[in-house]
Specification:
Layout (H helix, E strand, L loop, with lengths): L2 H10 L7 E5 L3 H4 L8 H5 L8 E4 L1 H7 L7 E5 L1 E2 L12 E2 L3 H6 L4 E6 L6 H18 L3 E5 L10 H13 L4 E5 L4 H6 L5 E4 L7 H13 L4 E4 L1 H4 L4 H14 L3 H21 L1
Parallel strand pairs: 1-2, 1-10, 2-3, 3-6, 6-7, 7-8, 8-9, 9-10
Antiparallel strand pairs: 4-5
Helix pairs in contact: 9-11, 9-12, 11-12
This protein binds ribulose-5-phosphate.
Length: 271
Amino acid sequence: MDWGMKNRMSRIIKPETGKTVMLALDHGYFLGPTHRLEEPRKTIEPLLPYADTIMLTRGVLRSSVDPGSATNVVLRVSGGASIIGPDLTDEGLTTSFEEAIRLNVAGVGISVFIGSEHERQTLLNLSELVNQGERYGIPVLGITAVGKELEKRDARYLSLCCRICAELGTHIVKTYYCDEFEKVTTTCPAPIVIAGGPKLETEMDVLEMTHSAIQQGAIGVDMGRNIWQNDHPVAIIRAIRSIVHEGNNAKHAHDLFLSVKDEETAKTANA
Ligand code: 5RP
């Protein structure tokens, strides 16, 4: 691996722990103004100090993130479909490598829709991105997307998807957590991060999922809604960080969540 690729990988996966907390903020690229991400700057700013990378589109990066911030960026470079259009899986490449370099990103991210009508197209898009990524020293995050078919998320399907992404040269794979998750991580030769999926009922559910994923071989999270749709986003991201980087269990992380939440509530009351 060349110096540039290694350097960018270490901007995403922290060398001190070998793990990462990525904050996913790219939902608007097919969902429009998602709940609690309506005004991206307001959502993003308080969370920046606690994210190793932010994952988003160039439009939201330019409009809503201060270029002076030290944040590492993984740029979403696929799109072309919307939640109200005919087919969410019909994605192409939306952003050039020249643009990714201009934005000084640490990596680029693309969805693949395996088993869908657009499987071939999205896998060839991923392969082309890896070719370019290898040329310029920019890691590629391959995302095993399921569109509206959330029920697809089981170990059999996700291990197939992750393995295919790794075989095509993906540097980091993003997938969903599922029962028997170890089957997914042990059969994928590339590092895996988990998405959070739709908002879970309780904070404990989020923390237990994160802890189980790490225990079963994930190197971190690339999580969105379960962080910024929480009423206390800073408290939950700090609790998640404590699991990923400090090896906390879900109970200790939940205690941290409660204490940060109380601190914040007191600050607001005194303001
Ligand atoms: C959409 C994505 C999202 O970034 C991803 O789903 C992560 O966000 P969440 O934790 O809200 O699921 O890649 O394809």
